[in-house]
Amino acid sequence: MSIASAAAVKARALALGFNLCGITPARPAPHLEAYLRWIEQGLHGTLGYLARPDRVARRRDLHQILPGARSLILVALDYHQAMLPPEIATDATRARIAQYAWGQDYHDLMLPRLEALATWLRADQAADIHWRAYVDTGAVLERDHAHQAGLGFIGKNTLLIHPRRGSGFFLGEILLDTDFDSYDQPGPETRCGSCSRCLQACPTDAFPEPYVLDARRCISALTIEHKGFIDADLRARMGRWIFGCDECQTICPWNRFGVATLEPTLRLIHPDRAAPPLAEVLALEAAGYTERYAATPLARVGRERLVRNACIAAGNSARPELASSLAPLLSDPSPLVRGHAAWAYARLSANPGPALQAGLARETDADARREWILALTPRSSG
């Protein structure tokens, strides 16, 4: 078996446009048991794929993914960029989208480069090297492995933080069946000290304790991964986020060292990509949604869930003029949209009763009916 040059691989990774690269042996992630306890406690919520037995088995043993696996190459790609102007960020008629989704879909950007790196290594070694490359799609605890490869430490908000770059970067990895002439040393276990700003900043109290995330309460998980109705007790705390959430990163002191991305396709080209007018999102039809968000991370959630999220954001806006944008959605083909529109309409309309009563009378979906009833109770309009 050939032994590859770690220095040569890292140089090639940087030449391909990655900002960081580290290499670690293909061993079980050091915090695997903590992950398994997290699953046992049900903190993954409706993200059922995280608890699938076959995927848990792969996280336990990387050889389940690639027989003969010897090493992991971890890379990082910056997405950090300047914050939105205050007049845009605080405009209550606009939604908010997490910074990592302001540009092109990073999967489409990173995976071909990872494949190119692995292909180059095979040619450089003149060996039949086998690999698997992933950009947060494989059953790999990539943040834990990235920590082992020296790319940073795990923060109290569970994100990987680089001491000179903050946490505004994507991760990708290549699992391969070759050894390297040297491996990176793990970063420090933590450098958060006594700081707990991220925990305190979370609007939905999604951190039951430091280094533990309750995905059932996380705005990012709720707006992106969760497919059904969102708990009414959480909606009013979700603000105007319709895709992801940056609250725990924005407040993190380490992100003052954030390095602006050099990738043109990741940069914000118009404020509406980061903070679209809520009225426009609420009015999206399927075709318009596809046209607007194709090749971006938002393409994965679909029109139904994005409009669901926009209904919640509108309900939290305290802008009564948005009630007129919600009114058509009370008859939307989707029960998910109808139910959340009813909740938001009750919060914004000066006289929601007639429209809500009419909607309840014609509603046939059991889950949506519960939303109409909730909207008609006095507490939903407070």
Task: Please give a structural write-up.
The protein has helices at residues 6-15, 32-40, 53-60, 86-89, 106-125, 142-148, 197-201, 219-225, 232-235, 247-250, 271-274, 278-282, 286-293, 302-315, 323-326, 335-348, 353-362, 366-376, and strands spanning 3-4, 20-25, 71-78, 96-97, 131-134, 153-154, 160-161, 169-176, 179-180, 241-243. The chain is an alpha/beta fold and 382 residues long. The strands form four sheets. A four-stranded antiparallel beta sheet has the order 2-3-8-5, with helices on both faces. Strands 1-9 form a two-stranded parallel ribbon. Strands 4-10 form a two-stranded parallel sheet. Strand 6 and strand 7 (160-161) form a beta hairpin. Helix 17 packs antiparallel against helix 18 (366-376). The longest helix has 20 residues, at 106-125.
Summarize the structure.
The protein is α/β, with parallel strands linked by helices. The protein is 39% helix and 10% strand.
Q: Any key phrases for this structure?
A:
elongated; 382 residues; 18 helices
The main β sheet shows up as: 4 strands, antiparallel
Give the overall shape.
elongated
Number of helices: 18
The helix/strand order is EHEHHEHEHEHEEEEHHHEHHHHHHHHH
pLDDT under 50 segments (min length 5)? none
Q: What class do helices, strands and sheet pairing give?
A: alpha/beta
**What value does the average pLDDT take?**
95
DSSP E strands, number? 10
For the termini, the CA-CA separation is 68 Å
Helix content: 25-40%
Helix and strand layout, with pairings?
Elements: E1 3-4, H1 6-15, E2 20-25, H2 32-40, H3 53-60, E3 71-78, H4 86-89, E4 96-97, H5 106-125, E5 131-134, H6 142-148, E6 153-154, E7 160-161, E8 169-176, E9 179-180, H7 197-201, H8 219-225, H9 232-235, E10 241-243, H10 247-250, H11 271-274, H12 278-282, H13 286-293, H14 302-315, H15 323-326, H16 335-348, H17 353-362, H18 366-376
Parallel strand pairs: 1-9, 4-10
Antiparallel strand pairs: 2-3, 3-8, 5-8, 6-7
